[in-house]
Specification:
Layout lengths: L2 E7 L19 E2 L4 E2 H11 L4 E6 L3 H8 L8 E6 L6 H11 L8 E6 L2 E3 L3 H8 L4 E6 L8 E5 L2 E6 L8 E9 L3 H10 L5 H13 L2 E5 L4 E3 L3 H6 L2 H8 L12
């Protein structure tokens, strides 16, 4: 059995247009260091001792390869698996990686969505995962992006501007045991567009009843849309993820 980090970074980034017409969204620069979003993910894996990475790529994949190569510059080993047109969705990309031998049923996989910034402790996540088929990282700190009103008949008695939802939401990081391939085999017979959250997890819960949540209290941010990207402040990135960068900052004279 081996441990592998699997990063989903092949999407077209339709919510990221028009920027994604020119750049793969995982390669957009964030933070004052102006490093690609994907580099923060790579460094997070390396920081927690996970050096065997698999990138599931497709759209504008050369931009990713040109920057990361085989991963030696970052102290990791990166294998690339290109999406196939007959297997769609992030679940399809994962299934394709199984079929091409980049991952196996004997592996433990940390699946990480490529548009998520987080300082999640991957080692602690793995520790809590022990004995489970799938462990999904969730947060209770998701803010509703609109104001919420409390009403009595037609009269507003209270307004909360963008309150916390108060319910656990998925943050795009999860651990899976490789035997999940059996479920992917079954789903692929009836549909070619497979989604991890919509298709794989419900099927796993129904069959094995061994899917659990890991409640994460730290920082996470979904950079999946152009609006979210524009609202992301460099100071937040530097404060929450600066520990991933040990080299000295570039200074202008």
């Amino acid at each position: 059995m081996s441990l592998k980090g699997v990063v989903l970074c092949g999407g077209e980034g339709r919510r990221f247009r028009p920027l994604s017409f020119y750049i793969q969204k995982v390669m957009v620069s964030v933070g004052s260091a102006e490093k690609p979003l994907l580099e923060y993910i790579v460094r997070l894996f390396k920081y927690h001792g996970i050096r065997d990475l698999v990138f599931l790529v497709g759209y504008k994949s050369n931009q990713i390869w040109n920057y990361f190569g085989g991963g030696s510059r970052f102290g990791v080993n990166i294998t690339y698996v290109r999406d196939e047109p007959d297997l769609k969705g992030n679940g399809g990309a994962l299934y394709n990686a199984f079929k091409k031998g980049a991952i196996s049923e004997n592996d433990t996989l940390i699946v990480y969505y490529g548009d998520i910034l987080s300082n999640i402790d991957l080692r602690d996540l793995l520790k809590k995962h022990s004995g489970s088929l799938i462990t999904v990282a969730v947060s209770k700190k998701y803010k509703i992006p609109v104001g919420v009103v409390e009403m009595e008949n037609s009269k507003i008695v209270r307004i909360q501007e963008k309150p916390d939802l108060g319910m656990p939401v998925t943050i795009g990081v999860l651990v899976m045991e490789g035997k999940i391939k059996g479920i992917l085999d079954e789903i692929s017979v009836r549909k070619k567009h497979i989604d991890i959250m919509k298709d794989v997890l419900p099927a796993a819960i129904k069959r094995y009843n061994n899917v659990k949540a890991y409640v994460f209290e730290g920082f996470w941010y979904d950079v999946g849309s152009i609006e979210k990207f524009e609202k992301l402040e460099n100071g937040i990135v530097d404060r929450e993820l600066g520990f991933l960068f040990e080299e000295r900052k570039f200074e202008l004279l």
